[in-house]
Amino acid sequence: MLTDDIKQEIRGSLAKIAGVMPAFKARPGQRVMIAEVARAFAASQQGKSDKDKSPVNTGSTFVCVNGGTGIGKSLAYVLPGALIARRREKKLVISSSTVALQEQLVRKDLPLFLPAAGVHMKYELAKGRTRFVCEHKLRRVIEDMRQLGMFPGNATEDAPDGHIGVYETLLKDFESGQWDGDRDTIERIDDAQWSTITTDRHGCLSRRCPNYKTCAQVNYPGLKAGA
Ligand code: SF4
């Protein structure tokens, strides 16, 4: 249930944002969205089973919002979500359709809105491990290509084209620390090329890997945290 306490806290946070960002004014569509999202979160209370007192959802719910561009959707779901999660001592998980949207949220929206709203929360961007290079495979692809003296059109499963220079540059940048192994920070590689130099957990050698210590996947904080 959406209590007066929560409503008051949301209003107070919006007022704080307006206090530090004079240009900010909650738009009508944004206010409606904030109210609907807050209602949905508030309805999803966790109670205890009468039988064995184990946790049960007493009001799982969802809300579907079609918000136009520019109404301030990020704030409209982050603010009620963050405030209600904090009250319940829960983690708020936000899933977006693209990594670019997640990046925008973590690098731009959250650092802007949360402090302004007086909400102090830790947040972390969790990406799938295949967004990061597998150093072991990258080295193997380069080695294969060198050994085969490959050129365009002479492809194998592990080396789909002859662009060895692309892979060598990636490895050089990775070794020098200029590239952190994150696919989203480079543009010079297509999906086919990328698929040869990344891996999922089934293909990972884990601690048996000679590159384990410097592995971008292993060292990514979001994956260390179990993402
Ligand atoms: S630890 Fe796994 S993901 Fe990392 S470089 Fe080795 S095989 Fe690849």
Automatic annotation (TrEMBL):
It comes from the Bacteria. InterPro entries: Helic_SF1/SF2_ATP-bd_DinG/Rad3, P-loop_NTPase. Keywords: ATP-binding, Hydrolase, Nucleotide-binding. Residues 16-227 form the Helicase ATP-binding domain. This is Helicase ATP-binding domain-containing protein. It comes from Noviherbaspirillum album.
